Amino acid sequence: MDRYKKVKIYKTFLFLTILGTTSGQFAKGASFPTDDDVPMVTGEVERREDDQELQFKYHDHEEITRYLRAVSARYPALTALYSIGKSVQGRDLWVMVVSASPYEHMIGKPDVKYVANIHGNEAVGRELLLHLIQYLVTSYDTDSYIKWLLDNTRIHLMPSMNPDGFLISREGQCDTIHGRHNARRYDLNRNFPDFFKANTKQPQPETDAVKEWISKIQFVVSGSLHGGALVASYPFDNTPSARICRSSVLCSVFQSYAHTPSIAPDDDVFRHLALVYSNNHAKMSRGVSCKSGSQRFDNGITNGAAWYPLTGGMQDYNYLWHGCMEITLEISCCKYPPAHELPKYWQDNKQSLIKYLAEAHRGAHGFVMDENGNPVERASVRVKGRDVTYHTTKYGEFWRILLPGTYRLEVSGEGYLPQEVEFFVIDSHPTLLNVTLHSAKRIDGGPYYRPGPPPPRPPPAPAGIFSTITKSINSFVTNLLG
Ligand SMILES: [Zn+2]
Where are the domains positioned within the chain? Predict the structure, then answer.
């Protein structure tokens, strides 16, 4: 039996297995989604006015909750609602799935996400995600592109990661930081583990919920929606030099690093992703500064650290810990503009929001299986020359967004012989790559192959050039300090 046949049969088997198990899990009301399913936590269903027509106004937490429940009741075949946890003050961190297969992960098809309102006073993204939900569910039957997207992608949308901060924010406040933090006054976008610098901030419930969420579902691409600027910012946000500058009197020595890009191994892909958002936006790509004297960005994109370095950001964490390519989308010069401006923001961002998610279908994806056609979970998948390791899901799936070109894939798994595969990526459609790993134990009873130690599991981020850079700069500083 050839490997493709095995994969097909395997996929069919798994699909049936999932269908057979999910209903029981829903009935039990499990509280956390996995790769397999999205448990329902909608509680009683309320049908209100909002499911017919979503107004352009700011919705408070209760209104959002009602709206999401109403949509999930009205579009049960296209949506599933779940909560990944609660904020400090006990508000649900809602996620709405929009997909032709909302309740289960479609094996071989990518999961993608947007997270908005991580800064409570940056409110536009929160409303745009509600409108995105509305647009997707109402366009499925009439728009062939949306139908294709929802048939082939599972889209997870979190309108607010910081509902407590939003509560104390005020409409019309463009530049203040009131409401930015969570209820314990932590900046959630400085609260994630950091590769370049140990993050000593106390982990917050909102951050912990997101960390658990993205460890359970392999997201392929993601966008984090912010306000206060108009730019698509991509990893890295942090840099080895920031590590020194913030912990030493030698800060001034390293000031020249302040606006130096911190280049990720997939810099070309991140720049492309940022440009997809910027170029599909009504005005972001013009790179016009928000107000006179403020920074302008060529083509509406920037490397995060080149703008300003930060520690504990969500986008670096998504990429280095979980192989999810996240960028930060600053979508409004005013953080909390008057509600009557919301239609304009929706029109400006609609095309970008949709086209960006479709980028999950670029590059290479496939399965890593053993000789018997069984999936190999947590196999290491590396593109030669790119010093970052992705891992396969429990179904052996992997996704690697890449621009057109020729690449070599290095695949290894504990107890298996490493494998290298050359492949091409073209622009028009993704490359399907199925890799078979052979057991390191020889069938003829000969000597055993002894693989090296398995790669570290998260939280350790992939080692490589970054650690080399960090170490060399550290030793430089050590020498300076004597
Ligand atoms: Zn922000």
Answer: 10-361, 364-451
Which residues neighbour ligand 1 (ion) by CB within 5 Å?
119, 122, 226
Residue 439 near residue 371 (C-beta atoms within 8 A): yes
Is 0.85 topped by the overall pTM? no
Classify domain 364-451 by CATH number: 2.60.40.1120
CA 215 / ligand 1 centre spacing (Å): 23
What is the Å distance from ligand 1's center to 326 Cα? 14
> Which residues are known to be catalytic?
330
Fold of 10-361: Aminopeptidase (3.40.630)
- Distance from Cα 226 to the centre of ligand 1, integer Å: 4
Per-residue pLDDT tens over the stretch 235-289 = 999 998 744 444 444 454 454 456 799 999 999 999 999 999 999 999 999 999 9
Ligand 1 centroid – CA 331 distance (Å)? 10
